[in-house]
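PROTEIN DESIGN WORKSHEET
SECTION A - STRUCTURE
LENGTH: 329
TOKENS:
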């Protein structure tokens, strides 16, 4: 159920509150181009995807309908980063107007491949720290979009949530896939809170079962799954393994909670992908991607799956219930 008064995440552009592009008066927008807009949609996970659907919904909100004034070339990396350069090059050869993709790995692959057409990133990590762009306000080059950069101290909130829900958990497993940019922040928070972390790295789907066996052998009492295109692509399996091992977990994308995970605390990934459509709209109407500031979320959502809590025999504290933006029951 959705709690009354919950507003969608606000976004900040280079340190200032962003004015939602979708609320601009119609008169302020130019008409859509006469010829169909040709978009290459490359999702990091499998297709069809919720993020791809969110982007297409954003395009429809702006008056673009696939099969009428919008042509979409659908591609998916199936959670395999090594496929990204090939798929990006394939879309470039098709001479699409804009490539829309997501994740830091895809942004870096586009930059390293020197893709010449505009690239809009639906959601990525810190684009400055990772070297994708030199500035949020003026990205330069041909890559822009939206960032899911969490900011210093954010990772500690996952530990705090687990500590409230599972107060006896002194050992917490961390399931992560490279690049693992949030690990230093997480380790710092764990040291402050007296929590011992068990870092479990995965790179391939067939490593997941072994990863959970390792957690069990090391007596992990709870788990944090770091946000990453790989873990997102395999979220159903990860949630299933967590349930099988009766491991209370918190995740970095709300879709994990939708699929049965205990808790998720993050910005809305689907909202970011939906807003990527506004970048495409502006680019096909003449804007240069390097002049479009990269947006960042400033508010985050806590999603709690009460059904999963009952299955695990957990009583969610009232303090967590009251803070939740959405309760799944």
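SECTION B - SEQUENCE
RESIDUE ASSIGNMENT:
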């Amino acid at each position: 159920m959705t709690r009354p008064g919950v507003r969608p995440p606000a976004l900040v552009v280079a340190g200032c509150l962003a004015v939602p592009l979708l609320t601009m008066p119609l008169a302020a927008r130019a008409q859509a181009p006469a010829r169909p807009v040709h978009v290459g949609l490359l999702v990091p996970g499998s297709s069809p995807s919720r993020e791809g659907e969110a982007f297409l919904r954003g395009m429809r909100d702006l008056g673009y309908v696939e099969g009428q004034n919008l042509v979409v070339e659908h591609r998916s990396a199936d959670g395999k980063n090594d496929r990204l350069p090939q798929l990006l090059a394939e879309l470039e050869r098709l001479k699409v107007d804009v490539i829309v993709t997501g994740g830091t790995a895809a942004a870096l692959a586009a930059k390293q491949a020197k893709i010449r057409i505009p690239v809009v990133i639906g959601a990525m990590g810190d684009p400055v720290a990772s070297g994708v762009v030199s500035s949020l306000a003026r990205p330069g080059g041909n890559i822009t979009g939206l960032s899911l950069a969490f900011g210093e101290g954010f990772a500690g909130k996952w530990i705090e949530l687990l500590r409230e829900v599972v107060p006896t958990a002194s050992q917490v497993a961390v399931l992560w896939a490279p690049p693992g940019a949030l690990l230093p922040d997480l380790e710092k928070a764990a040291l402050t809170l007296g929590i011992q972390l068990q870092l479990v790295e995965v790179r391939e789907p067939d490593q997941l079962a072994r990863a959970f066996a390792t957690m069990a052998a090391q007596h992990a009492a709870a788990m944090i799954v770091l946000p990453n295109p790989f873990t997102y692509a395999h979220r159903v399996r990860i949630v299933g393994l967590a349930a099988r091992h009766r491991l209370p977990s918190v995740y970095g994308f709300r879709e994990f909670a939708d699929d049965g995970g205990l808790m998720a605390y993050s910005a809305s990934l689907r909202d970011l992908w939906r807003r990527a459509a506004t970048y495409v709209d502006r680019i096909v109407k003449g804007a240069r991607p390097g002049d479009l500031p990269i947006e960042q979320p400033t508010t985050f959502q806590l999603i709690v799956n009460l059904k999963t809590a009952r299955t695990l025999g957990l009583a969610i504290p009232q303090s967590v219930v009251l803070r939740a933006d959405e309760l799944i029951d």
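SECTION C - NOTES
The longest helix spans residues 269-284.
The domain at 155-266+301-328 is CATH 3.40.50.2300 (Rossmann fold).
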